[in-house]
Amino acid sequence: MTTESIPTLRWGIIGTGLISSWFVTDLAIDRPNKKANHIIQAIGSSSTEKGQIFLEKHLPGKSPTVYGSYDELYRDADVDIVYIGTPHAFHQQNCLDAIRNGKHVLCEKPFALNEFQAKEVFDEAERQGVFVMEGMWTRFFPLMLKLRNLLHREKVIGDIYRVFCDFSMPMDIATLPPTSRLKNPALGAGSLLDIGIYSITWAILALESEPSPKEPRVLASQTFRDDIDIANSVILSYPDGRQGIATCSVFTKTPSSFCRIEGSKGTITVDGFAASVPASFIVTQVDQEPKKYEFERPGKGFYWEADAVALEIFAGKKQSDIMPWAESLRILTLLDEVKRQGGLQ
């Protein structure tokens, strides 16, 4: 569908938790520079009652169809694409079910619990001929696109040698019920998959202009409590000496300057509430005054990835240029190695 010379995408939302609420609220924002129209066509929940509560709270005045099961949403002929906002452990099955019903898919990060699961999903997407993407939304922020241009095309700080990134957030896990996705190992609980993936992503995007032909060597340490990882320290060591130091923890709050990028001609510091939602960065070149770049962000910023998905689908693509399948697999391969070294089951 197209209206106003821009594509229109009809979304089915799977899961009615916090991340799904942020997503639908963002898509409802009327933006003057939007690249696509987004319609929340249907909501799928474990019960009609839960779905109706979600609708009334987060989409007042809207009238999507509310289903009391995911399968009903997958079979809805008016749904073009399924957004999957369920806990990590359900991503693989949710993706497969949607794909086998002929739906395009945008699945929240981490795309799956491991590289093996993700490959199964992408193989099925290729067989069915549908578009599938991991929802690593931060990669689509104008800030990130501008930063990577300055780093890798304009080379404003020269050759990049080292990146530090931390994403720590107090989660008070001890007080959470055993059923919480942040505490239940069966749901993929732990800091690595939830927030550590952002620290590693920042290190890779800052250090590499393109995916490295030789994967960095991974040196990792994990700390556990109640069978989940509560802190991770990861070093990505490249053959030429570049280093990415990525950390995460559930105990403290990262200062606003969560990332530092060091090059031969200067440094860049990135600021924001967290590594997932950068707001600005400062370029400090040798012997020059620092220059600050700030970016407007109505709402949370999920619409940027949604716009990109719509444009790529209507261009006939099955993968994203910014977040292709190979990149999701590579990130999960690195995370699998962190888990192997740390002992995470």
UniProtKB/TrEMBL annotation:
Top-rank lineage group of the source organism: Eukaryota
Q: Which keywords accompany this UniProt record?
A: Oxidoreductase
Transmembrane regions: none
**One example GO MF annotation:** nucleotide binding
Domain (GFO/IDH/MocA-like oxidoreductase) spans 153-268
Reactions catalysed, semicolon-separated, are: D-xylose + NADP(+) = D-xylono-1,5-lactone + NADPH + H(+)
Q: What is its EC number?
A: 1.1.1.179
Q: What Gene3D superfamilies does this protein map onto?
A: Dihydrodipicolinate Reductase, domain 2 (3.30.360.10), NAD(P)-binding Rossmann-like Domain (3.40.50.720)
Q: Where is the Gfo/Idh/MocA-like oxidoreductase N-terminal domain?
A: 9-135
Pfam families this protein is in? GFO_IDH_MocA (PF01408), GFO_IDH_MocA_C3 (PF22725)
Which SUPFAM superfamilies has this protein been placed in?
Glyceraldehyde-3-phosphate dehydrogenase-like, C-terminal domain (SSF55347), NAD(P)-binding Rossmann-fold domains (SSF51735)
Instruction: Report the top EC class in one word.
Output: oxidoreductase
By sequence similarity, the record places it as follows:
Belongs to the Gfo/Idh/MocA family.
Protein name stated in the entry:
D-xylose 1-dehydrogenase (NADP(+), D-xylono-1,5-lactone-forming)
